[in-house]
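FORM 12-B: Structure-to-Sequence Request
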């Protein structure tokens, strides 16, 4: 069998996933494959109908591994791109012929013998390209922040023992421990282990885990801490435009800086190019980072300890100070001040980033790398 057709499945039918699936499909098409794609992970009947209609040789799913689709015919190659655990543990994702990990920080946590490696997003040059910018913002941040904790959430009893333990009692200690131990906390399991340690050491309790609590501790809390820390530092230096879901309005301190949800490629491109500095924290080689760089935006990225891992991390692709800027939180103010007042130096970085993305980091490049992985595993690729 030669690989001629691929079907892409992204987790949900949202505006962003529809945009992303189209961009990824273009990349595979440019690499020579016939492509079909869907926003939503199909059940057995739906997937059977899909296979009968499109006859894919490869199914590429985001956040679903082959073990979650035992009804998938064995002759079809399955690729899982793990971008978000969604409250699950990394060991839940197994069985695929290829597993790609969105974060290089997860590489040493993946516990199966099959083929796996880091895979960063690419950029779509039809959507993201430099144009004459209408500079409106000294700095911007595009992304999500969780809602603040409600009183019901803070009062919730999380104890597995007969004596209650309120989440609000544990939270400040947990926040402090997470902040001081960031470099040692990599995946879902690490945060849950820390929660149990805090409960035992400080309160002599065991925590009763629920799906909501697991997500709150391993996802929501991390994003909340990191984004508040970054934005609070930036606001001491310059004005800031915030874009993303309306959760920003639920934070009194951030409401004055919130603009809107960006609903189109054009809006995102205008913000990236129209900001003197674009801020990013989280996974360094993120979708937004690639899109911003392709648009001619200057991106300032919070350092991660895995950024320069061999075989994973943004420094495998780009050079800080040449293609993008990086920061530790205690340095971010000084870096912003400097580049806000050095437009020629900022433009030099923008231009180098656009060139680097175009040369090697589009969705076509990512599709070609995936096909090379398949060929390296002994599969015949028609294109």
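FORM 12-B RESPONSE
SEQUENCE OUT:
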């Amino acid at each position: 069998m030669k690989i001629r057709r691929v079907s892409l499945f992204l987790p949900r039918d949202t505006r962003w996933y529809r945009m992303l699936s189209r961009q990824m499909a273009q990349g595979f098409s440019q690499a020579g494959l016939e492509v079909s794609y869907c926003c939503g992970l199909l059940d057995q009947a739906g997937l059977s109908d899909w296979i009968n209609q499109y006859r894919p040789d490869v199914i590429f799913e985001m956040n679903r591994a082959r073990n979650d689709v035992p009804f998938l015919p064995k002759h079809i190659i399955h690729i899982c791109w793990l971008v978000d655990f969604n409250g699950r543990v990394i060991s839940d994702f197994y069985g695929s012929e290829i597993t790609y990990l969105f974060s290089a920080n997860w590489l040493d946590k993946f516990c199966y013998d099959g083929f796996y490696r880091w895979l960063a997003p690419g950029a779509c040059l039809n959507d993201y390209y430099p144009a004459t910018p209408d500079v409106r913002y000294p700095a911007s941040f595009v992304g999500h922040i969780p809602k603040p904790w409600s009183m019901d959430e803070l009062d919730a009893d999380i104890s597995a023992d007969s004596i209650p333990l309120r989440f609000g009692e544990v939270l400040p200690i947990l926040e402090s421990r997470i902040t001081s131990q960031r470099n040692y906390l990599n995946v879902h399991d690490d945060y849950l282990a820390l929660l149990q340690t805090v409960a035992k050491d400080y309160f002599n309790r065991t925590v009763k885990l629920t799906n909501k609590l697991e997500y709150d501790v391993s996802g929501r809390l991390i994003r909340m801490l990191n984004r508040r820390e970054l934005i609070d530092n930036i606001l001491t230096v310059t004005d800031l435009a915030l874009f993303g879901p309306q959760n920003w309005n639920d934070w009194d301190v951030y409401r004055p800086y919130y603009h809107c949800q960006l609903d189109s490629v054009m809006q995102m491109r205008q913000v990236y190019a129209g900001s003197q500095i674009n801020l990013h924290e989280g996974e360094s080689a993120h979708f937004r980072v690639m899109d911003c760089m392709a648009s001619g935006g200057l991106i300032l990225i919070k350092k991660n300890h895995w950024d320069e891992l061999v075989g994973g991390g943004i420094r495998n692709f780009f050079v800080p100070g040449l293609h993008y800027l990086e920061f530790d939180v205690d340095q971010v103010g000084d870096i912003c001040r400097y580049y806000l007042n050095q437009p020629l130096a900022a433009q030099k970085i923008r231009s180098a980033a656009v060139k680097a993305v175009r040369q090697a980091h589009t969705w076509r490049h990512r599709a070609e790398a995936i096909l090379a992985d398949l060929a390296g595993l002994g599969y015949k690729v028609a294109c």
